[in-house]
Amino acid sequence: MEELSAYVNSPVLWFFALGVFGVIIVQTMIYMRAARRAGPQLDFPREDLRASFRSGAVAAIGPSLAIVIVAVALLALFGTPAVLVRIGLVGSAATETASASLASGTMGATLGGEGYTPEVFTVAFFAMSLSGGMWMLATLVLTPLLKHGDVKMRAINPALMAIVPAAALLAAFASLGIAELGKSTGHIIVVVVSALTMAVCLALARALNAAWLREWGLGFSIILGLVVAYFVHSAGLGPPPA
Amino acid sequence: MTTAAQTAQSAYEQYDRTTSRWGRITMALGLLLSWAAPVYLIFFTDLRIAQSDLWTGFLAVGAVFWVFWVLEPLTYFPVLGPAAMYQAFMIGNIANKLLPSAVVAQSAINARPGTKRAELAAVMAICGAATVHIFSLLIFVGILGTWLVSVVPEDIRSVTQIYIFPAIIGAVVVQFAVFVKQHRITVIAVVVAVLVQLVLVPNVAALANYATALVVMSTVVLAWVLRDRSAQPVPHPEDRTEHMDVGG
């Protein structure tokens, strides 16, 4: 595994990842200056500006820490630079790991398991980055069009829009989840524990009206899933050693 | 038009020009930097990877997510406004972090949605959220997380690597099924997935690489053919108040 970590944590990857962070910091500063300039003429004085920034920052603490937990758990798989950009920023944990799993599958490898070589990581990373970038590309193309009212979503059949995206994503997640069941008894147990933990979190979130449980559900499911994985793997229920 | 209204108008135009121009420049830079990393691994290291492997991998991913590349920017535009679009789709976690932050800020300063004040409050709230997020990622993941991975025993690290995907995907299926609240589609997706992954693939090995693509296509077609035609029309995506993060 030494070999994989040399690639996933390469200094050049760190450089590009920190570059994305730098770009966001610069963007934030430019936006804040623009808002500060225009604010006084738009009934948005300095104290509103500060109050908005502060409440946005405070509201983001919980969700940010929930994302941190998920990101740390993925470090062993993708290395720090890829996790920072793909999981922490642009994408979401569900989409990016699903993408990585799909791409590894086309190489005949299991994400993190048998045959997970630097080459497989690179194909997965390429697929995640290219696909994840498409959201940004679409934003760059569509925002000016939407602003000038050239594109209207209303034109699309609502029944179609309600069914197709939900069906595609549910199918992809269900397919990847069920594929895991075929790998070992340990995998079956971990998938079930993860699913049950999420179900309990969502049920409690509704019963107690605690929205934060919804945000932390994935983090809790991963931690509990991995703890159980450690025991079932030690008990010899995991996949046969490669 | 009164003078005050004119000043306000020109102040807003100035703000709109700055955020549009620099929003686009910074987002394009972020996009290029995020693509540069895999490009470096492919062309500037000793790894030898066939072009066809790269594009096959991308196609497998794109086949599932392409709808969302376009759908999510369309859905969020009315909520976010043009300036915040360039922030949101680079910072990510829009539904579970940025939108709540914006709403909290708007109510903190009593800004009615749809006004210029509300738009500025949302942008400033996203700036605040971005600042918190950037620093918590750098400190807790970049520094502490990297250190943590270097000190945990090898057996724990290898268990994490083998089981992290099953530990995520179980929860994700449940979360998404609960979110979409379409039982009929959920049942169709699970039944098709079981048939393909546990019955078809073990018998037809050649299908393994296309299994998920097959599940996705069959589920979409079945969900459409078997849709509940008597049901009330579902609200248009643009009118929904709840969102869930896919890409953004």
From TrEMBL, chain A:
<feature type="transmembrane region" description="Helical">
    <location>
        <begin position="120"/>
        <end position="146"/>
    </location>
</feature>
<feature type="transmembrane region" description="Helical">
    <location>
        <begin position="216"/>
        <end position="233"/>
    </location>
</feature>
<feature type="transmembrane region" description="Helical">
    <location>
        <begin position="12"/>
        <end position="32"/>
    </location>
</feature>
<keyword id="KW-0472">Membrane</keyword>
<feature type="transmembrane region" description="Helical">
    <location>
        <begin position="53"/>
        <end position="78"/>
    </location>
</feature>
<keyword id="KW-1133">Transmembrane helix</keyword>
<dbReference type="InterPro" id="IPR032479">
    <property type="entry name" value="DUF5058"/>
</dbReference>
<feature type="transmembrane region" description="Helical">
    <location>
        <begin position="185"/>
        <end position="204"/>
    </location>
</feature>
<feature type="transmembrane region" description="Helical">
    <location>
        <begin position="158"/>
        <end position="179"/>
    </location>
</feature>
<protein>
    <recommendedName>
        <fullName>DUF5058 family protein</fullName>
    </recommendedName>
</protein>
<dbReference type="Pfam" id="PF16481">
    <property type="entry name" value="DUF5058"/>
</dbReference>
<keyword id="KW-0812">Transmembrane</keyword>
From TrEMBL, chain B:
<keyword id="KW-0812">Transmembrane</keyword>
<keyword id="KW-1133">Transmembrane helix</keyword>
<feature type="transmembrane region" description="Helical">
    <location>
        <begin position="54"/>
        <end position="71"/>
    </location>
</feature>
<feature type="transmembrane region" description="Helical">
    <location>
        <begin position="22"/>
        <end position="42"/>
    </location>
</feature>
<protein>
    <submittedName>
        <fullName>Uncharacterized protein</fullName>
    </submittedName>
</protein>
<feature type="transmembrane region" description="Helical">
    <location>
        <begin position="161"/>
        <end position="180"/>
    </location>
</feature>
<feature type="transmembrane region" description="Helical">
    <location>
        <begin position="120"/>
        <end position="149"/>
    </location>
</feature>
<feature type="transmembrane region" description="Helical">
    <location>
        <begin position="185"/>
        <end position="201"/>
    </location>
</feature>
<keyword id="KW-0472">Membrane</keyword>
